[in-house]
Structure prediction request, 448 residues.
Amino acid sequence: MYVRMSFASASSLLRSRSDSFPGNGFTACSAFGGEVLRKAEGTRHQYCETPSDDFYVAFFGFGRESGEVRTDPLNSWFGVYISLRPNRRRMVRGPSRGGRKSPRYAATPGASSVVDALLGSSEPSVRWKTRIHVLGQERGSRAVRAVQEEIPRSPRVRALLSRRHELGRPGTARRVYYKWQGVHWVLASLADLGYPEGDETLHPIRDRLMEFWLNPNYFREFEARTKAEAYRQKGVPVMRGRYRRCASQQGNALYALTILGIADERADSLVERLLRWQWPDGGWNCDKNPAADTSSFTETMLPMLGLVAYARSNRSVEAARAVERASEVFLRRRLFKRVSDGRVIHPEFVALHYPLYWHYDFLGGLKAMARIGRIKDPRCAEALDLLEEKRLADGGWPAEKRYYKVNPRAMEFNADYVDWGGTNSKRMNEWVTVDALAVLRSAGRIEV
Prediction:
């Protein structure tokens, strides 16, 4: 049955049959029935989903524009957390055993309130990532497009691009890769922030990166028996059959340019180099110790991400196979443990950071697994458990460590143009939190 009434009347009706629940706007804890979509395997919870144009689905559901109120009760009752934000999913407590009614209180997990906070962020990139990666909204929807259009005008992006003309000129090689203010890192940040695709004003930066990372030296190879020989001349040393090259550089460029929709035919050459340099175990490493025979996490993650982006946009079977091989470098080690004895590979691998730049941590590994479609591999379980353990009482995640300092006015080694929220083990960091929620949703560990 559909009943048409004003928003105020519907709110009053709901209040007359529900307990108040603290929060912004009108939220309520109600014992109204709703449309059960599926039961969570192995739990006593059920899930309700909000249709794209409704504020919620429960016993009542507002149409976002029409103001319709839907009454569609079930035979059983269960507590529902109701929010006026559209396009939301809620976990609700199902009927208790024995047919008894569920308690009249909200049974949602902490993810819901955290998502509300992220959607209220002053950072349009945080809101965009929440809608796309946490709530699973369509990229082409009006609401998502509106948020994405804010990103290029945001203070953060304006700061990141503040030196674009200076750093993109030929003859400024030092400032292409200068950590973390060179244009290489700027494009990588834009790709992660949801910057709109196909911006032709970025082409000069693209051209500078392509010129830099496709320098003839990267096509010049030579045999080296010792570390001293490896450093003696320009080019890519080959030691005991393995190319000793920092492939994260070409990989990061390939990833950023492809995600930003500004890659051109020169991307094929980046891919060719990455495929040629790939090690037998599936990854990459620039270690010039002749005895080194195991790929590096830090040198493997970015090439893997670049290749998967390229494989999908160009339907490249060869690149996709390289991604599959590279993923085993991480999965064999449960994303942070040694194969030999199960110990943590490095303390930094189990700390939370944002941004990672070229570094690695287990959340970055989980994000990569989600992007390449392997997040549900059982070997990700320990890293997912660790991520859940690091969740704060308020439902968010902190940035425990960082690789940057902030200096928007001058070029300084390891300085960034902007502050990414700093570090505090007891305070939620929006950037880490939205990534953590996205990973857990992709893994099927939460519904929000």
